[in-house]
Amino acid sequence: MSTINIGAANAGDEFYRYKMPKLVAKIEGRGNGIKTNIVNNVDIAKSLERPPEYVLKYFGYELGAQTNYDKATGTCIVNGAHDSKKLSEFLEGFIKKYVQCYSCGNPETQIKVKKEDLLLKCRACGFVSEVDPRSRLNSFVVKNPPEVKISKEEKKLKKAEAERVMDAEKAAKREKKEAKEKKQDKDKKKKKKEEEGRDPNEKDDDESASDDGDEDGVVWMTDTSAEAAKQRAQEQLTAATAAMVTQGNIEAEQEAQRKREKKKAEEEARAKAEAEAKQQAEEAERQALAQQATPVGSVQHLLKQGADAEAIATQLKTINPPGGIPGKMRVLLEAVFGLGAPEAKLADTLTAHKAQVAAHAKDAPSQLALLIALEHYMSVNAPERVKETPIVLKAMYDADLADEDIIMAWAGKKDAAGILGLDANATKDVRRLAAPFVSWLQEADETESDDE
Length: 452
Prior knowledge:
By secondary structure, this protein is α+β, with helices and mostly antiparallel strands.
């Protein structure tokens, strides 16, 4: 099951460590019996460290619908049809009111019931938030307070306390029993001396040694009462509690260190991203300047700026590419085709900029030069797009960039591209693909002649 960050404000934080399952709702039944089963409400409540009944009741109060929770199966039902998006919005309201700390925003709070008020005590920053008493869920929480959960450390301390008290009581009983047995033994010896006619207060050698040993021992210096045993256990417990507080301080310092490291990592990542973006922008600018330094790039820059035909003509005259007029048309056509997206059809790009091309293809020589430039482009610059040749020719014809007789003249001159350094073998694919369009023009011309 997919998980999301707790709290909508943290949705985009990939380093956020507080997660919960994404709410899944299933509409069941029909008519008056229609209901919504929140499939993973128990898992969501567990992630939020709240009883499932609280979340379900909150939905019921917000929607004005009855709810039903089966503790045995974990089934959570809200009467009526409600989609996951709507329920997720209400869940966000529950998280803000009853889960997140009002100070630091972390979902590490414990609900404390104080008379009729609800308090949220944050385990992260220690802040105590007071829940709005006007919320309808408050009365339900007051009547059904959350179970007080004991941490593992507290359980260990309570167990250790019980064991110490038990050991102390056992030791006290054992010492009391030994003292009683010793007194009984003394009484027996005294009675025996009386029977033998000896002085009852006279001590034997072994008794004297035993008494001396008792005086030197530490047992009789220890208070063996139950109260004293409990006091000693309490002193040991106090030391353990102090150790637990110290451990809590260590954990708080570790959490603060983790937050500092996280913030530092985020700042470094942001700085790195900004540096990369700056570097990419500088590289793009360098490439643009480098491109403008080329004949094609300089003309393309003018086209992007929306320069008029005179400015473009001046630029073509300035660079004076080899090949005369066909050479200038080659530069112009490459610049125009370069304005289109990589996936765009060449014919569409040409049609979009036909006005800029038409300004330089007004007479027969310039139109023939444009066809030679197309032949060069398809053979040298974009041989992988040579199949678009007839479509581009049709676009030129439709846009009046190349008249019918000019196209026929170009088709009849197989070595027309020789002025740009291409022989007939280099342009054979262009000629082959252009042939059907040329034939179509011839047939159309013959049909018109027959009609006349």
